[in-house]
């Protein structure tokens, strides 16, 4: 399946809002059908992943790749270490949100 352009991703998010699918059973299937009517070919799994990314990050662009250790500053590494030292149960997603880090949660792992 080909990658979606930013325009196509925006259109899917707009369709979600227009169709008012929040808390609707089978919403991903309905959204996939609406996207297909717009000429956007995507599966239910792709719809679900795109919308979850939108809900979490409010961005439609690709997230930074996990292999960005060189881009993580020493300061951020120390902040991550201190946070994990205080609370060992923190997940990478929680750390990202807690510390307002500009990297994917996979980079934090």
Fold blueprint:
Elements: H1 6-18, H2 27-37, H3 44-57, H4 74-86, H5 92-99, H6 105-108
Detailed description of the structure:
- The protein is mostly helical and 109 residues long.
- The chain has two domains: 6-57; 69-108.
- 58% of the residues lie in helices and 0% in strands.
- The protein has six helices and no strands.
- The protein has helices at residues 6-18, 27-37, 44-57, 74-86, 92-99, 105-108.
- The longest helix is centred in the middle third of the chain and has 14 residues, at 44-57.
- The chain is elongated and about 50 Å long.
- The mean pLDDT is 84.
Defining key terms:
mainly alpha, 2 domains, 6 helices, 109 residues
| SSE succession | HHHHHH
Beta strand count: 0
What general outline do the C-alpha atoms trace?
Answer: elongated
Strand-residue proportion:
under 5%
Largest sheet features = none
- The Rg value, from CA coordinates, equals 17 Å
Produce a short descriptive summary.
The chain is an all-alpha fold. It contains 6 helices and no strands.
């Amino acid at each position: 399946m080909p990658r979606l352009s930013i325009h196509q991703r925006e259109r899917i998010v707009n369709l979600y809002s227009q169709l008012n699918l929040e808390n609707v059973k089978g919403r991903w299937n309905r959204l996939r059908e609406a996207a297909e009517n717009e000429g956007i070919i995507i599966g239910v799994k792709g719809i679900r992943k795109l919308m979850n990314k939108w809900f979490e990050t409010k961005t439609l662009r690709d997230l930074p790749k996990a292999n960005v250790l060189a881009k993580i500053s020493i300061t951020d590494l120390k902040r991550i270490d201190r946070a994990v030292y205080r609370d060992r149960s923190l997940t990478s997603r929680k750390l990202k949100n807690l510390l307002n880090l500009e990297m994917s949660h996979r980079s934090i792992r």
